[in-house]
């Protein structure tokens, strides 16, 4: 799997990120570091413990990383969740969290496949 195919699999914009970072090597470096960031786990645990200000911060961080890396699908769902949590909990946050979880899983799977094939 190429980096372009990884972006296609996750619903990201390879052309946009290359336009921003200008180097496939640099994009690859940050893509591979994405899964090591703890913001997604923090989001899930904060929602579970009903710490909504922390959940907002985590969703906002995910949104920002996705914007920088052009992870379009996950960026969109995390942005929607962050806005729902901006002023505390609302009932709409629960289905939005489920969408973020699904989009994160797709993104993580694409990155893990890319990484595994790269290392093979």
Question: In words, what does this structure look like?
Answer:
This protein has 120 residues and is mainly alpha-helical. Helix content is 80%, strand content 0%. It is built from 7 helices and no strands. Helix 1 runs antiparallel to helix 7 and helix 4 (39-48) runs antiparallel to helix 5 (52-69). It is elongated and about 40 Å long. The chain starts with a helix and ends with a helix. The model has no long low-confidence stretch (mean pLDDT 97).
At a glance:
With 120 residues, the protein is an all-alpha fold.
Number of helical stretches of at least 4 residues: 7
Give the overall pLDDT as a whole number.
97
Major sheet summary line: none
Number of strands: 0
**Which sequence of SSEs, written as H and E, runs from N to C?**
HHHHHHH
Termini gap: 11 Å
- Provide the helix percentage: over 70%
What structural class do the secondary elements suggest? Answer: mainly alpha
Radius of gyration: 14 Å
Return residue spans where pLDDT drops below 50 for at least 5 consecutive residues.
none
**Overall 3D shape:** elongated
Share of residues in strands: under 5%
């Amino acid at each position: 799997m190429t980096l372009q195919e990884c972006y296609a699999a996750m619903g990201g914009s390879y052309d946009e990120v290359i336009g921003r970072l200008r180097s496939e090597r640099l994009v690859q470096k940050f893509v591979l570091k994405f899964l090591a960031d703890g913001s997604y786990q923090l989001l899930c645990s904060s929602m579970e413990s009903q710490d909504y200000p922390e959940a907002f911060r985590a969703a906002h961080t995910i949104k920002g990383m996705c914007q920088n890396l052009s992870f379009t699908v996950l960026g969109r769902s995390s942005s929607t969740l962050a806005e729902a949590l901006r002023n505390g909990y609302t009932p709409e946050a629960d289905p939005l969290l489920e969408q973020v979880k699904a989009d994160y899983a797709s993104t993580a799977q694409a990155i893990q496949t890319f990484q595994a094939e790269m290392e093979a």
